[in-house]
Write a structure and sequence with these properties.
single chain; 293 residues; mainly beta; 25 strands; 0% helix; globular
Amino acid sequence: MSVNIECVAPTRSQLGEGAVWDVEDARLWWVDITGGLIHRFDPETGGNESFDFGEPVGCLARRQDGGLVVAAKSGFHFFDPDTGARAFLSDPEARLPDNRFNDGATDMQGRFWAGTMKDGGDPERQGSFYRLDPDLSVTRWRGGIFTTNGLAFAPDGKTMYFSDSNPEVRTIWVADYDLDSGTPGEPRVFFDTRQVAGRPDGGTVDAEGCYWQAGISGWQIYRITPDGRLDRTVDLPVEKPTKPMFGGVGLDTLYFTSLSQGLDSNRAQPEAGSLFAITGLGATGVPQVRFTG
């Protein structure tokens, strides 16, 4: 079976991100950060519904009790897209009004992790990672990061990946992860993206434990083995892919979001900012765990 890439939701989002496949919904949830929109894509019908959150939305996860948990400009919220009901939980960075949440993921115990970054202006190392526990307490784990990104967990839940997309850093790290406490160990370099065209953006893992990274500004997605070796490169029709996520009934379709801002004007990419689906890769993903709070 040959690899096929198709634009499945031609939204031309300003900053498409945050793709999460929910096995129970059989839907792909994703966001337009700058547009403040939450999307729900149904591959069965090809329909893509949009819900206005009213502020920049970095990432989200489905809740076991219904609706979504959202990490946005103003902090953590619960949100029911079907009714519009919204409940504020906490803002761990109220002291940093220039920051917003960016990338996130749930661990295998249903905790929600999300990272922050400075929103606009000159980049500064003022991003941090936060863990939202089921009891709704918030724990800061690590700071001093330009652009928090790449959050993902190995299939057994015992390894955590994260990255910094900034051109000065462009590095992916890995850390041992204590499932009982939700605490990462000391990070170590997993992959330096200076060896490939694209900087690290969102990431996900497959059933074999390999890490798939969106190579922003590189027109590519990369598959990296658990020992940090580049295993595969997939060329894309857009310059800035942002977040890959396996979905579909068999978890064998790799969806990815993209952005439409700051593009190379020398190469046509009329579908930039849209949602894409890659089939024929011969890889399958790992079910994403719902937030248990």
